[in-house]
Amino acid sequence: MTIERSFEPTKEVGKDYVELSGSFLTNGSSDPATTYGDGFTVVHAATGVWTVTLDFVFEQYVSAEASLHMATSESAVHSMMIGDKSITSQTFDIIHKTTVKADVAAAAANRIDFRVKVARSDIPGAGIS
């Protein structure tokens, strides 16, 4: 299956922005084997933590969010949050918690979705091709 790039370029006076949406199937304590979208990679960094690396240069994070889809209904309360972010390495962490950081089991429908908005340039018209 071919998945097209999930970029949505937008412009405002003085800034060019890119919004990227992506998704990956969880794989327990291993790196995700399947990702959906383009322009990023994901590694399992620690228990309950995945690091997303964007494959383009940008100058500023504007916003980021993540959500979890589970294959079966759960009685536990799950929360997703964005952790450390780095402009230098073009990364951000996604953290999953119940009462503590926890991995999400490998199952066909267990998936984490994310959306990130970044500023590409402070020069109008530059940065988005």
- CATH topology heading: Immunoglobulin-like
State the major sheet: 5 strands, antiparallel
Our count of domains comes out at: 1
Structural class: mainly beta
Compose a concise summary of this entry:
With 129 residues, the chain is mainly β. It has strands at residues 7-12, 15-25, 35-36, 40-46, 49-54, 60-69, 79-86, 91-97, 111-121. The chain contains no helices and 9 strands.
Could you characterize the architecture of this molecule?
The structure is a single chain. The chain has one domain: Immunoglobulin-like. It has no helices and nine strands. The protein has strands at 7-12, 15-25, 35-36, 40-46, 49-54, 60-69, 79-86, 91-97, 111-121. The strands form two sheets. Strands 1, 2, 3, 6 and 9 form a five-stranded antiparallel beta sheet that branches. A hairpin with a 2-residue loop joins strand 4 and strand 5. The two termini are 25 Å apart. Residues 1-5 have low confidence and may be disordered.
What topology does this entry show?
Blueprint: E1 7-12, E2 15-25, E3 35-36, E4 40-46, E5 49-54, E6 60-69, E7 79-86, E8 91-97, E9 111-121
Antiparallel strand pairs: 1-2, 2-3, 2-9, 4-5, 5-8, 6-9, 7-8
Top keywords for this entry?
single chain; 129 residues; mainly beta; Immunoglobulin-like; five-stranded antiparallel β-sheet; 9 strands; 53% strand; disordered N terminus
